[in-house]
Design a protein that fits this description.
Blueprint lengths: L2 H71 L2 H24 L4 H26 L5 H88 L4 E5 L4 E4 L7 H4 L12 H13 L4 E7 L2 E10 L4 E8 L1 H15 L9 H13 L4 E8 L2 H8 L1 H26 L2 E8 L2 E7 L4 H11 L4 E3 L2 E3 L3 E8 L6 H17 L4 E3 L2 H23 L2 E10 L7 E10 L2 E3 L1 H11 L2 H21 L5 E6 L1 H4 L4 H12 L6 E6 H21 L2 E7 L6 H4 L6 E4 L1 H5 L5 H16 L3 E5 L4 H10 L3 E3 L9 H4 L6
Parallel strand pairs: 11-12, 14-16, 16-17, 17-18, 18-19, 19-20, 20-21
Antiparallel strand pairs: 1-2, 1-5, 3-4, 4-5, 6-8, 6-11, 7-8, 9-10, 13-14, 13-21, 14-15
Helix pairs in contact: 1-2, 1-3, 1-4, 2-3, 3-4, 9-10, 10-11, 13-14, 15-17, 17-18
Bound molecules: ligand C2E and magnesium ion (2 copies).
Length: 746
């Protein structure tokens, strides 16, 4: 029960008691009046009448005694004085009795008796005064007088009885009135007592409530959080001490007590009113601090209650967390999460823009040379330059150009409008034309840019990321600095995806097979070796290994694929071996396959399980396999060599290795790449290269094979250069095992 409810109840009880008390007072007053009247009547009338009646009786007795004395003494004075005096007294008293309300009939009778007695007394006086007193008559006369007195007595008694009855009735009335008064007083007292108890209990509660309210009233006062009450117009009604420093910020003009709320506060108040019973909550910044403001519209009082809580620490911590969530921890540049948000914002606004991925292409080499930590330090220098220049571009052009640091050595630039992308890319690329100062010294960085445009080429965040990445990859693979994503790139990517998916199924579905291309020993003319080449007929379509092998290499599929090829090749070698044809089969080994830790064991296991002589197995390794893994490669090659298998370097000349360097590796053969052989007969430079390779290989004790020999003139030149083997269409195209075996000659 609240304070006002209690007060109303107490007030009502007080009114009831006052009314009842007034009514009781009136009743008691009326009753007392009645008692007084009865008593007065009793005192003034009945008592006087009673005494007068008694007096009549006494005077009658006195009259009789006077007359008897007169008879005995015959003293005339007794009659003349005493009797007459007594007679007059009697008549006076009787008339008094009559006046005072005595029974008129009885009084009349007594009066008649009195006058009869007077007449008889007069006759007695005459008799006694006479000289001849007739004493017998005198006695008769006296007896008559006595008789008259006795006759009066019942009448007097009747009057007395009536008086008694009247007195008794008055007494009863008084008794009844007093009894009613007593009961009224008792009832009132009980009522007042009950109400006192009731009121007492309420009063106790009221006192408790009041003290609680008083304590509550202290609460906002001592509350360290600001508490403010405003009227319906938003004007200040109350502010606790903690709110005092904020008032000048909350109210727009003049003294806060009379001023109107600031615009922003006004809008909060409106929303609080709109929220009704629910409390509306806002975070606001007042005097450089953050507050959580709960505004509540109290419709009963038509007031707004504002409770503020200082959440500056929490807010700052949240902002720091949000910053961390949206920025790179070291460079403080917006990160990929932020990029996604910005891109989605652009998409929502249907804003045309270009997304440009920037790859620090040297990063891989840097981390190989200096370690990841130092390589990252270098990237941070690049980031600093990129950020500074991007900001300058955005400011100078007044356009929406932003930089994001999305991976270790990868950045993204968003440029709106997209037409400015080329200008931005050129400007940024120029910054890296000269060396940068880094913790590792002055360094030159090579950045690759891959751009795509919304909405023409990419429609959402995922496609923007993918397409810019494809563009960067395209730029890198074609050794360009900038590449703009095109539909061809998209188609190529789709095809790569398709090949990746289908190739996995193809391995188990028997869609793959091995073809063999024979090799000829030039000096002897023998065809006693061949190269196994993978063939994939996907639903009738031939897909070249030149296309799917690099894809398999990237996706990791090359590993199961390589295992399958090895098994197929070993099976074929065993088959021919069992037929007595010792044909050496060269198997292409991808760099990734070569780098597997159990690669040598795999070969050893197969040599053992297939039971084929190791000399019938040749492994074709790429230049990069051997070069990139360095010392590790040397160990693997030695182990393979120890197994007795031949080793050749495929596509020689396309990499950057020198023959002299390669000779340090335990390999047997060099395969000159088709690109040198192809135009050898037309281009003297190519011819010179092939000749040099042949001569150097000879000097280093390595065999040489030329691949892609298509013409007789090429063959003749190679013969003249001292090349050991040839392989190419001139001899035969790759073909199934049962066909190629027809070409083998002893
Ligand atoms: P590669 O090992 O250098 O194979 C030689 C490629 O040149 C073969 O292409 C072959 O058909 C082609 N060729 C041979 N002679 C001539 C010629 O006279 N003229 C022309 N124009 N081409 C000729 P293919 O079969 O398309 O293979 C392409 C590449 O795919 C191979 O180059 C090899 O690197 C890879 N590859 C093929 N099979 C396998 C395999 O089983 N495992 C691995 N890891 N890679 C393989
Ligand atoms: Mg090969
Ligand atoms: Mg080759």
């Amino acid at each position: 029960m609240n304070e006002s409810h209690l007060a109303t109840k107490t007030r009502r009880t007080y009114i009831v008691i006052t009314l009842l008390g007034s009514m009781l007072a009136l009743s008691v007053y009326a009753l007392a009046q009645a008692v007084q009247e009865t008593a007065m009547r009793f005192m003034a009338e009945d008592l006087v009448l009673y005494s007068e009646t008694q007096q009549v009786g006494q005077l009658l007795s006195e009259q009789e005694r006077i007359l008897y004395e007169y008879y005995a003494t015959t003293e005339a004075e007794l009659y003349a004085n005493n009797y007459m005096h007594n007679f007059h007294q009697l008549t006076d008293v009787l008339s008094q009795v009559s006046n005072d309300g005595g029974d008129s009939h009885s009084i009349g009778m007594v009066n008649a008796y009195l006058h009869s007695a007077y007449d008889t007394a007069k006759a007695l006086d005459e008799n006694l005064a006479a000289d001849q007193t007739d004493w017998d008559l005198a006695r008769e006369q006296l007896a008559e007088i006595s008789e008259l007195r006795r006759a009066s007595l019942p009448l007097l008694a009747k009057i007395e009885t009536e008086i008694n009855a009247s007195v008794a009735k008055g007494y009863d009335d008084i008794q009844r009135l007093l009894s009613v008064t007593v009961w009224l007083v008792i009832v009132f007292s009980v009522g007042v007592g009950g109400m006192s108890i009731y009121l007492g209990r309420h009063a106790a509660r009221f006192i408790l409530l009041s003290s609680e309210n008083e304590k509550l009233a202290l609460f906002p006062k001592r509350n360290p959080n600001p508490v403010i009450r405003l009227d319906a117009k938003g004007q200040l009604l109350y502010a606790n001490p903690a709110a005092a420093p904020l008032l000048s910020e909350l109210f727009e003009e003049g003294e806060p007590q009379s001023s109107s709320p600031a615009n922003w506060l006004n809008s909060y108040l409106k929303s609080a009113k709109f929220a009704g019973d629910a409390c509306s909550q806002h975070t606001c910044k007042i005097a450089q601090r953050y507050y959580l403001m709960q505004s509540h519209w109290i419709s009963d009082h038509q007031t707004f209650d504002l409770h503020l809580r200082d959440i500056t620490e929490r807010q700052e911590a949240e902002e720091a967390l949000a910053f961390q969530a949206y920025h790179h921890p070291v460079t403080q540049i917006a990160n990929r999460t932020f990029l996604e948000k910005i891109i989605n914002d652009h998409l929502q606004q249907n804003k045309r823009f270009a997304a440009v991925m920037i790859d620090v292409t040297d990063f891989k080499v840097l981390s190989e040379n200096y370690g990841l930590a130092d390589a990252l330090l270098c990237v941070y220098q690049v980031a600093e330059v990129l950020q500074a220049k991007t900001n300058a571009l955005a400011n100078n052009l007044s356009k929406d150009i932003q930089l994001f640091h999305i991976a270790d050595a990868c950045f993204m630039l968003t440029v709106a409008p997209e037409s400015l992308a080329t200008k931005c890319i050129d400007h940024l690329a120029k910054q890296f034309a000269k060396a940068l100062q880094t913790p590792l010294g002055d360094m030159r960085f090579h950045l690759t840019f891959g751009a795509t445009v919304y909405p023409e080429q990419s429609s959402d965040y995922a496609s923007l990321m993918l397409h810019s990445n494809i563009a960067v990859e395209s730029a890198i693979s074609s050794a360009k600095q900038v590449h703009y994503f095109s539909n061809d790139d998209g188609d190529r990517h789709q095809r790569r995806l398709m090949i990746t998916q289908r190739l996995e199924q193809a391995i188990g579905a028997g869609a793959l097979t091995l073809y063999f291309q024979p090799k000829q020993h030039l000096a002897q003319g023998q065809v006693k070796s061949c190269e196994s080449l993978l063939r994939w007929f996907d639903e009738g379509e031939f897909i070249s290994p030149a296309e799917f092998i690099p894809i398999a290499e990237r996706s990791g599929l090359i590993l199961p694929l390589g295992e399958w090829v090895l098994d197929q090749a070993f099976t074929q070698v065993r088959h021919w071996h069992q037929q007595g044809k010792d044909i050496q089969v060269a198997i292409n080994i991808s760099p990734r396959q070569f780098m597997q830790p159990d690669f040598v064991q795999g070969i050893a296991r197969r040599l053992d399980s297939y039971g084929v002589p190791p000399s019938l197995i040749e492994l074709e390794l790429t230049e990069t396999s051997v070069m990139e893994t360095g010392t590790a490669a040397r160990t693997v090659l030695s182990a393979l060599r120890d197994l007795g298998v031949s080793l050749s370097i495929d596509d020689f000349g396309t990499g950057y290795s020198s023959l002299a360097y390669l000779s340090g590796f335990p390999v047997d053969k060099i395969k000159i790449d088709r690109s040198f052989v192809q135009y050898m007969d037309e281009q003297p430079e190519q011819q010179a290269i092939v000749l040099t390779i042949c001569q150097l290989a000879k000097n280093l004790g390595l065999s040489v094979i030329a691949e892609g020999v298509e013409t007789e003139s090429q063959r003749e030149l190679l013969v003249s250069f001292g090349c050991d083997y040839i392989q190419g269409y001139w001899l035969a195209k790759p073909m199934p095992a049962n066909e190629v075996e027809q070409l083998f000659v002893d």
